[in-house]
Design goal:
By secondary structure, this protein is mainly beta.
Protein backbone atom coordinates (compact mmCIF):
# COMPACT_ATOMS: atom_id res chain seq x y z
CA UNK A 1 0.00 0.00 0.00
CA UNK A 2 1.04 3.50 -0.74
CA UNK A 3 0.29 6.00 2.00
CA UNK A 4 -1.00 9.36 0.83
CA UNK A 5 1.22 12.28 1.90
CA UNK A 6 0.02 14.19 4.91
CA UNK A 7 -0.20 17.88 4.07
CA UNK A 8 0.17 20.54 6.73
CA UNK A 9 -0.99 24.14 6.66
CA UNK A 10 1.47 26.50 5.06
CA UNK A 11 3.21 28.62 7.65
CA UNK A 12 3.10 32.39 7.79
CA UNK A 13 6.50 34.02 7.92
CA UNK A 14 7.13 35.42 11.41
CA UNK A 15 7.91 39.04 12.22
CA UNK A 16 11.26 40.35 10.92
CA UNK A 17 11.32 37.85 8.03
CA UNK A 18 9.76 37.74 4.58
CA UNK A 19 8.61 34.99 2.19
CA UNK A 20 11.20 33.79 -0.31
CA UNK A 21 9.62 30.55 -1.56
CA UNK A 22 6.10 29.20 -1.79
CA UNK A 23 4.70 26.34 0.24
CA UNK A 24 4.30 23.01 -1.63
CA UNK A 25 2.90 19.63 -0.63
CA UNK A 26 6.26 18.56 0.81
CA UNK A 27 8.01 21.85 1.76
CA UNK A 28 6.87 24.68 3.94
CA UNK A 29 7.00 28.36 3.13
CA UNK A 30 10.57 29.64 2.84
CA UNK A 31 11.26 32.66 5.04
CA UNK A 32 14.38 34.83 5.11
CA UNK A 33 15.34 37.34 7.77
CA UNK A 34 15.17 41.04 6.92
CA UNK A 35 18.64 42.63 6.70
CA UNK A 36 19.73 43.78 10.18
CA UNK A 37 18.58 46.00 11.83
CA UNK A 38 15.41 46.20 9.71
CA UNK A 39 12.04 44.85 10.78
CA UNK A 40 8.90 43.45 9.19
CA UNK A 41 5.42 42.49 10.26
CA UNK A 42 4.26 38.90 10.52
CA UNK A 43 3.13 37.55 7.16
CA UNK A 44 5.45 39.71 5.05
CA UNK A 45 5.71 38.38 1.51
CA UNK A 46 8.64 40.28 -0.01
CA UNK A 47 11.84 42.13 0.76
CA UNK A 48 10.02 45.40 0.17
CA UNK A 49 7.99 44.73 3.34
CA UNK A 50 11.11 45.19 5.48
CA UNK A 51 11.48 48.61 7.07
CA UNK A 52 13.97 50.46 9.24
CA UNK A 53 13.52 50.82 13.00
CA UNK A 54 13.33 54.14 14.83
CA UNK A 55 16.45 56.34 14.54
CA UNK A 56 17.40 54.85 11.16
CA UNK A 57 16.40 55.57 7.57
CA UNK A 58 16.36 53.48 4.39
CA UNK A 59 14.09 51.22 2.35
CA UNK A 60 14.00 47.84 0.66
CA UNK A 61 12.94 46.26 -2.62
CA UNK A 62 14.11 44.34 -5.67
CA UNK A 63 14.38 47.31 -8.03
CA UNK A 64 17.77 48.59 -9.17
CA UNK A 65 19.18 51.35 -7.02
CA UNK A 66 17.22 50.46 -3.89
CA UNK A 67 19.61 50.64 -0.92
CA UNK A 68 18.23 47.58 0.93
CA UNK A 69 19.87 48.81 4.12
CA UNK A 70 19.27 51.05 7.10
CA UNK A 71 21.54 53.98 7.95
CA UNK A 72 21.61 55.49 11.42
CA UNK A 73 20.35 59.07 11.64
CA UNK A 74 22.97 61.80 12.20
CA UNK A 75 24.11 62.45 15.78
CA UNK A 76 21.60 64.35 17.93
CA UNK A 77 18.67 63.45 15.69
CA UNK A 78 15.94 60.83 15.65
CA UNK A 79 13.33 59.30 13.35
CA UNK A 80 10.19 57.22 13.52
CA UNK A 81 10.32 53.65 12.33
CA UNK A 82 9.74 53.15 8.60
CA UNK A 83 11.53 56.39 7.68
CA UNK A 84 12.75 56.09 4.09
CA UNK A 85 15.02 59.10 3.63
CA UNK A 86 17.54 61.10 5.62
CA UNK A 87 15.35 64.20 5.68
CA UNK A 88 12.98 62.21 7.89
CA UNK A 89 15.57 62.40 10.68
CA UNK A 90 14.64 65.30 12.97
CA UNK A 91 17.12 67.18 15.12
CA UNK A 92 16.47 66.68 18.82
CA UNK A 93 15.08 69.50 20.96
CA UNK A 94 17.81 72.04 21.62
CA UNK A 95 19.50 71.47 18.24
CA UNK A 96 19.02 72.82 14.72
CA UNK A 97 19.68 71.39 11.28
CA UNK A 98 22.77 72.85 9.64
CA UNK A 99 23.21 72.07 5.96
CA UNK A 100 26.82 71.18 5.19
CA UNK A 101 28.70 70.80 1.96
CA UNK A 102 27.14 70.70 -1.49
CA UNK A 103 25.46 67.29 -1.21
CA UNK A 104 21.67 67.59 -1.06
CA UNK A 105 20.40 67.01 2.47
CA UNK A 106 23.89 66.53 3.86
CA UNK A 107 23.34 67.98 7.33
CA UNK A 108 24.43 67.88 10.95
CA UNK A 109 22.48 68.75 14.08
CA UNK A 110 24.15 71.63 15.92
CA UNK A 111 23.51 72.71 19.51
CA UNK A 112 21.42 75.88 19.79
CA UNK A 113 23.20 78.98 21.13
CA UNK A 114 23.38 79.32 24.92
CA UNK A 115 20.06 80.33 26.49
CA UNK A 116 17.99 79.10 23.55
CA UNK A 117 16.28 75.92 22.43
CA UNK A 118 14.28 74.48 19.55
CA UNK A 119 11.59 71.91 18.86
CA UNK A 120 11.93 69.15 16.23
CA UNK A 121 10.73 70.26 12.81
CA UNK A 122 9.97 68.19 9.73
CA UNK A 123 11.93 68.87 6.56
CA UNK A 124 15.36 70.08 5.61
CA UNK A 125 14.92 73.79 6.11
CA UNK A 126 15.75 74.12 9.81
CA UNK A 127 18.39 76.66 10.73
CA UNK A 128 19.72 78.57 13.72
CA UNK A 129 16.66 80.86 13.63
CA UNK A 130 14.56 77.94 14.83
CA UNK A 131 16.39 78.37 18.16
CA UNK A 132 14.49 80.82 20.36
CA UNK A 133 15.44 82.22 23.75
CA UNK A 134 14.08 80.21 26.66
CA UNK A 135 12.30 81.61 29.70
CA UNK A 136 14.80 83.52 31.81
CA UNK A 137 16.64 84.82 28.73
CA UNK A 138 15.83 87.41 26.08
CA UNK A 139 16.96 88.11 22.52
CA UNK A 140 16.03 87.37 18.94
CA UNK A 141 15.74 83.94 17.33
CA UNK A 142 19.16 82.57 16.50
CA UNK A 143 20.79 84.30 19.48
CA UNK A 144 22.61 85.62 21.22
CA UNK A 145 20.31 85.29 24.22
CA UNK A 146 20.98 87.40 27.32
CA UNK A 147 20.18 86.07 30.78
CA UNK A 148 17.75 88.00 32.98
CA UNK A 149 20.00 89.64 35.61
CA UNK A 150 20.06 88.96 39.32
CA UNK A 151 16.87 90.24 40.94
CA UNK A 152 14.77 89.38 37.90
CA UNK A 153 13.24 86.24 36.40
CA UNK A 154 11.56 85.17 33.19
CA UNK A 155 8.20 86.79 32.41
CA UNK A 156 6.19 83.93 30.88
CA UNK A 157 3.56 86.34 29.51
CA UNK A 158 6.15 87.57 27.01
CA UNK A 159 6.76 84.17 25.40
CA UNK A 160 7.40 83.57 22.56
CA UNK A 161 8.19 87.26 22.03
CA UNK A 162 10.88 87.64 24.69
CA UNK A 163 13.03 89.92 22.57
CA UNK A 164 14.15 92.51 25.14
CA UNK A 165 14.67 92.99 28.85
CA UNK A 166 10.95 93.63 29.39
CA UNK A 167 10.85 89.84 29.22
CA UNK A 168 12.42 89.87 32.70
CA UNK A 169 10.15 90.56 35.70
CA UNK A 170 11.52 92.08 38.91
CA UNK A 171 11.36 90.20 42.18
CA UNK A 172 8.30 91.40 44.15
CA UNK A 173 8.56 93.56 47.30
CA UNK A 174 10.00 91.63 50.21
CA UNK A 175 12.13 89.46 47.96
CA UNK A 176 15.58 89.88 46.47
CA UNK A 177 17.65 88.16 43.82
CA UNK A 178 18.98 84.75 44.69
CA UNK A 179 22.30 85.52 43.00
CA UNK A 180 23.22 84.41 39.52
CA UNK A 181 21.12 85.01 36.43
CA UNK A 182 18.85 83.35 33.88
CA UNK A 183 16.17 82.17 36.29
CA UNK A 184 12.93 81.02 34.67
CA UNK A 185 10.64 81.45 37.69
CA UNK A 186 10.18 83.67 40.71
CA UNK A 187 10.57 80.65 42.98
CA UNK A 188 14.04 79.98 41.57
CA UNK A 189 15.29 83.55 41.14
CA UNK A 190 13.93 85.37 44.20
CA UNK A 191 14.39 84.77 47.91
CA UNK A 192 12.68 86.35 50.90
CA UNK A 193 14.51 89.29 52.40
CA UNK A 194 15.89 88.80 55.91
CA UNK A 195 14.09 90.64 58.71
CA UNK A 196 16.16 93.48 60.20
Amino acid sequence: DKTAPVCTACRTCPANTYKTSACTWNTNTGCTGCPSPSLSNEGSTSLSNCYCPANYYGYFGTEAGVPNSCTVCPANSNSLQNTNFKEGCLCNAGYYKSMSGTVYLDFTCVLCPAGSSSVPKVGGYDNVYDCTCVLGYFGYAGGPCTACPNGKFGNSSKLPYNYDNSSCAACPPGKAGAGGSGYATEAAGCVACLSP
